[in-house]
Amino acid sequence: MLTHEQRIASDLSLNDRQVRTTIQLLDEGATVPFISRYRKELTGSLDEIQVAAIRDRIGQLRDLDKRREAIIKSLTELGKLSPELQSKLEEAETMAVLEDIYLPYKPKRKTRASVAREKGLEPLADWLLKQEQSSVEDFAATFVNDEKGVSSVEEALAGARDILAETIAEHAETRAQMRDFFMENGSFASRVVPGKEEEAIKYKDYYQWTEPLKAAPSHRILAMRRGEKEQMLYLDVEVPDDEAIALIDNRFVKNASPAALQIRLAVQDSFKRLLKPSMETEVRLITRKRADEEAIRVFAENARQLLLAAPMGSKRTLAIDPGFRTGCKVVCLDEQGKLLTNTTVYPHNGTAKEAEAAHQIQLLVKQYQIEAIAIGNGTAGRETEDFVRKLQIPDVIVVMVNESGASIYSASEVAREEFPDYDITVRGAVSIGRRLMDPLAELVKIDPKSIGVGQYQHDVDQNKLQESLADTVISCVNAVGVELNTASKQILAYVSGLGPALAQSIVEYRNQHGAFRRRADLKKVPRLGEKAFEQAAGFLRIRGAENPLDASAVHPERYALVEEMAKDLGHEVNSLLKDEKLRKSIPLNKYVSEEVGLPTLNDILAELSKPGLDPREKFETFSFTEGVNTVNDLKVGMKLPGIVTNITNFGAFVDIGVHQDGLVHLSQMANRFIKDPNEVVKVHQQVEVTVIEVDANRNRISLSMKTEEKAPQAKKHDRKGVKPEKRQSPETDMAAKLAALKSKFS
User: Fold this and answer.
1) How does the average pLDDT of the chain come out, rounded?
2) How many CB atoms lie within 10 A of CB 681?
3) How much of the chain is helix, strand and coil, in % rounded to 5?
4) Which run of H or of E encompasses 49?
5) Distance of CA 20 to CAs 3, 91, 195, 394, Å?
6) Of all residues in the chain, what percent carry a pLDDT higher than 90?
7) Exposed e or buried b for every residue in 726-743, given b needs 16+ CB within 10 A?
8) Which of 18, 97, 127, 325 is deepest in the core (most CB within 10 A)?
């Protein structure tokens, strides 16, 4: 039997040593970012994804072990654990197999089979299962007993069949076979709840929809389940019953004897009453888990791209949270995002108010030496942007900022603690401004589920989603690095090895003792021990520190090595940072040791060339098309600039400045065939799109990124019974529809 390390190595195509060492590091408290960045020699240069996969897989296997131990203990207490049964349990490699083996022995509530057993009919069931050629009626008659509630031969046989039906339904091999059969041959079938056709209009694509379980993509499974949960759709799992029953017959029916006829009846009852409902429940869970995993993966990737969006950097910023009747809340922030002042202007409340608002904005820009203006993209966002741009303020960039989640932040405990004397509108405006300056530093203060890049985040397993998003945020924060002397406790909490408590301690120490002058001073922070320092130090930066390496990603444990390199060349460390020729002259092989190999040495050399470099892309300004502010302003054929806000498996959503994102379907993303939208776009990317359909009733906008005028005409198919590769998806190619319609009149 394979060890856990061997199984994981096989599953992930790694060698045993890589897996064993990684598990050991994880068990010692090392974090995923630390292991992948600073322990490459030990792991064979595994990246974060591989390290996280090992962590998750060993967790699953250990959970399986715990459940196995609990089952063995239960069976031992029941006196039912035989050597053969224990062997089967020990060999079970999945939770499903383990539970199938345990099912016949699992304590359960009263069933038809348990009642029949109480009536003494189990020997009759066992005899029938042998399928001998003897008279069934004669043998069954011996079990007729009024005192036990068996008044006739037929009642005796019915009770025996109940026992057989349960035995068949709990047979481990049969359950495994049926599980595979359902997944291979089953289909989802959805239909609209009668009378709710209008109310359920957003589920119109699923009013009469059939799709194989094995082919159904994540987003459609989640959409149908949501429609069912909202009582707009009926959703069933359909399989060819006769084929399933035939498979079970082949397993249990041995001949054509009268007893075999009873077995056939028991098989039919077992499938329809017990196995089919049980398998339907299981495949719903299996497909939901599969859909959840894919949706969470897509969500996490979107979140990663948004968190790593290009920062504008340290600029004095005026931020506006737009509004019509209640006015626009305005705040001014310094280069570090500190609130300097706030006010409210009313540019949308008449000519006089507009003139007054213009004067106030211009005055604030001058008084606080504003370099950038950030405007939230919510209600009145486009109108406010038009108002500000018409002011034509020189040397000041104007940027629309996605404000998703700003209201969540402004009402949070974090915001109340940061701005106890200001209301939520001021806090929201501050968040908008800071997002422009550094998206990552601001977005970590918000629950990742609220940052506006998901579609079904409230429908998936919330614990799994939270774990995945936490991993994503941790990965992003540590990839960028954190400035120790200016970081909030929220972003410090995501640094490898820290967490909320130590982050709070760091901020308190910084407030009491002033700025950190060197990384080693972290050890003076209460409760921050050697292990936490080891895990965190390399991801923290101190710009302008006494030791220039403190501003880099070089870990303190390697400072002596870098100093040795510099000394061997007859220079100081500073010279290595400034002189490329000097760095290239370092003979790396000379410094290879048991602890440090070429992967780490190459990382050090790369870091010396660009110490503390922010890996995020360069910030670029963007503006929407003037005069296109609402869905009613859109016309088919318009070419518009947009920002990618969300990516799904079936396409990407793009903000074109009309308060409703448009969908670029997968088929409209490029002139070539693509499988994954990430081949073409990423979140926050600037793109040019063409409007190909506007459906005002369903509030849907269809866009294209193709450069050609006309898309190929799509073939029509009947939805029901069509093979998955031929069926048109609910996210229909709108350009193809328009082309087909146009051809009718040509």
Assistant:
1) 89
2) 20
3) 55, 10, 35
4) helix 48-78
5) 10, 21, 59, 61
6) 66
7) ebbbbbebbbbbbbbeee
8) 18
